[in-house]
Design brief:
The structure holds two protein chains of two kinds. By secondary structure, chain A is α/β, with parallel strands linked by helices. Helices cover about 35% and strands about 15% of the residues of chain A. The relative contact order of chain B is 0.19. Classes of the chains: A alpha/beta, B mainly alpha. Chains A and B meet through helix 1 and helix 4 of A and helix 4, helix 5 and helix 6 of B.
Chain lengths: ~170, ~110
C-alpha cells in the first residue's frame, strides 16, 4: 500500500554552471523528494554558480561549441542544421540563447533556478559546497544563497552520502 | 480496533497496483481517513484543505495535481506540504484523495 522507500538516498554532484546543466539535478532532485527519497546536492567547481547569490539569476547557455543547438531554435527550418560557431560567437548570441531557453522553461511552468533551489531546500534537500572549489574561488558561506548547509571536503561528502546513489552532472 | 474499522470502510473499493483508487467517485471522507491512517497520517484541517484542493483540481483537469501545482494553487508552502504529508506529498495526497497518480515533472 505504501511506497515510502524509507531508506533510499540520492546524491547529485553538480559540476557545471551553464543554465542547461542546472536543471538535471533540480528536476531529478525534486522528483526524488516527491518520491520520498532523501536528497543531497554537492556543488563543485562551476556548479558553485548554481548556489552563488550573485550568479544564480544570471546563468547562461552559450551556442558556441554546442552541437545540439540547431538553427531551428531560432525559427529557421532544417532539423539538423547547426549554428555555425562563428555565428554563436557574435555579440548577444549567448544572451539570445539564454532568453530563449528561459522562455521555453517558463512555458512549461518550470521555475527559475533560484526558486527551484529554494523549493528543494524547503522540501528537505541538503545542499553543500565543495571545500576545494570554494577555497580556489575565494568564496565563503556569505556568497551562497540561503539553504546551503555547509562547505565540506570530498571526504566528508563520502561520509554524508554513505548508502546513497550518486549522480554526477 | 482501528484496523477492523479501516478494513470495513475499504471493503469493495478497487485499487490499482500502486495503491491508487481506480474510481475517484467511490471516494468518501471515511475512506480518506482510513487511507491516511495506512500512511500513518491523522488528518487535520490543514490536511483537508490540501485534499479538497486536489479533489477540486482533479475534477477540473482530470488528473491529480503535481507538487508545484498544489503549492501554487492552494497557497500551502512547500515546507508545510512536506510536513503535512511527509515523504512524497503529491503522491500521498493523491492516494488519500482517491485520485490517480500525479503526472508531470514539477
Amino acid at each position: 500500500m505504501t511506497d515510502n522507500n524509507n531508506n533510499r538516498k540520492m546524491a547529485f554532484i553538480c559540476s557545471k554552471g551553464n543554465l542547461d546543466m542546472a536543471y538535471p539535478a533540480l528536476i531529478m532532485g525534486w522528483a526524488a523528494l516527491g518520491n520520498g527519497i532523501d536528497v543531497t546536492l554537492f556543488f563543485t567547481f562551476w556548479g558553485l554558480d548554481l548556489i552563488r547569490e550573485s550568479r544564480v539569476d544570471h546563468l547562461e547557455i552559450p551556442p558556441v561549441a554546442n552541437t545540439s543547438m540547431k538553427m531551428t531554435m531560432m525559427g529557421i527550418p532544417g532539423d539538423n542544421l547547426g549554428i555555425p560557431n562563428f555565428m554563436g560567437a557574435l555579440p548577444g548570441m549567448t544572451a539570445f540563447a539564454t532568453t530563449l531557453m528561459k522562455k521555453k522553461m517558463d512555458d512549461l511552468e518550470v521555475p527559475p533556478v533560484r526558486e527551484y533551489m529554494q523549493m528543494l531546500v524547503d522540501a528537505g534537500a541538503n545542499l553543500y559546497g565543495c571545500k576545494m572549489s570554494v577555497d580556489m574561488m575565494n568564496l565563503t558561506m556569505d556568497d551562497f544563497i540561503p539553504g546551503v548547509k555547509d562547505i565540506v571536503t570530498a571526504s566528508e561528502f563520502m561520509d554524508l552520502t554513505e548508502d546513497a546513489q550518486v549522480i554526477f552532472i | 480496533m482501528i484496523e477492523q474499522v479501516t478494513l470495513n470502510v475499504l471493503e469493495g473499493i478497487d485499487f490499482d497496483d500502486e495503491g491508487y483508487m481506480t474510481d475517484p467517485n467511490a471516494w468518501t471522507v471515511e475512506i480518506a481517513e482510513a487511507l491516511a491512517a495506512h500512511e500513518g497520517i491523522s488528518l487535520t484541517e490543514s490536511h483537508w484543505n490540501v485534499i479538497e484542493f486536489c479533489r477540486q483540481r482533479a475534477t477540473e483537469s482530470g488528473s491529480a495535481p503535481t507538487l508545484r501545482q498544489i503549492t501554487k494553487g492552494s497557497g500551502v508552502s512547500t515546507k508545510e506540504l512536506f510536513a503535512l504529508f511527509p515523504k512524497g506529498p503529491a503522491k500521498k495526497v493523491a492516494k488519500i484523495s482517491g485520485l490517480g497518480k500525479p503526472e508531470g515533472c514539477v
